[in-house]
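Format notes (please read before filing issues)

Several people have asked whether sequences and structure tokens are stored in separate files. They are not. Every record keeps both together, in the order shown below: the sequence lines, then the token lines. Line labels are part of the format and must not be stripped during preprocessing.
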Amino acid sequence: MLSIEHRGNTGGTQGEHRGAVLAQWGLDCCSCARNDGRRELFTGSIGCCVPSRLALRNSLTERGRSYILLTVIIVRIAICEDEAEEAAKLEECVKSHNKPVSFRTYNSAEQLLSDYEKGERFDLILMDIQMPGLNGFDAAKRIKKAHPGKTPLIAFVTTHSGYAPDGYGTAWRYALKPIERERVIELIDLALGELEQIILPFETAAGTIGLDVKSIMCFEVYGGKVTIKTTQGTYTTKSTLAAIAAMLPPRAFVQVHRSYYVNVEHVKRHKGKEVFLSNDESVPLGIRMKAGFVAAMADYLRDGSDYDY
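Then the structure lines:
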């Protein structure tokens, strides 16, 4: 396995600055030591986690609402490819990126899973599909099942675009062979964007809480109240669904019913008039919303290419 050394800067003053900005929002902050020696900054009453490897880019105000934007300092990448020549091409493409990266190369899915079980973690996995033994799809499903809510971004590398429906709910993006440098650079750039944490404030009966957008599974309006379902729990906010929709990041959420918005990252599958989320709960899919939902999922998986689900 090949690894490249970390080239980021995680100075302590950055953590202090994050805490100061969050405190300005009225959110509770505390620092907590992890078993691996890293320190994490937890914010808000729900324990929204801001890892020390994320740097505060800015505290922004948009559409009259404020949010905190954190960006990753270094991208951790795994290359899982059984063909040595293809693996070497991917390595060269990754090394050519102008941002700090670290990567490891595996020639089987079993090796990757073994390291994952030992505690190794990656932000992005470039995963071949057809490999001897465990294939890429099954390996990705095992990682996702073992680490719900903490699954890395998985880009499947394949010679056939027809694999797309099989990766529904698991794939993040696809890259077609022969591998092109521009596509790998694009995937890393997209990963940097995906890894940014956008923390939004919501007014609740208990006060203001900060939620990482990626932790939010869906918004539901019922009886004039909006419920936010997250991987940490369920919360009720005083905001209206229309006001929430106006401040959400573009392409991150899609409306599936007049009373529901879902996070595309948490969509597991859809069947008939139901959309199933990462926690196996279902929400209704309106007839008039279906075309927009399918288009949004296709856009999420492969940058706008058409899929027939």
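For reference, the curators noted about this record: The two ends are 37 Å apart (CA to CA). The chain has three domains: 12-71, 75-195, 212-302.
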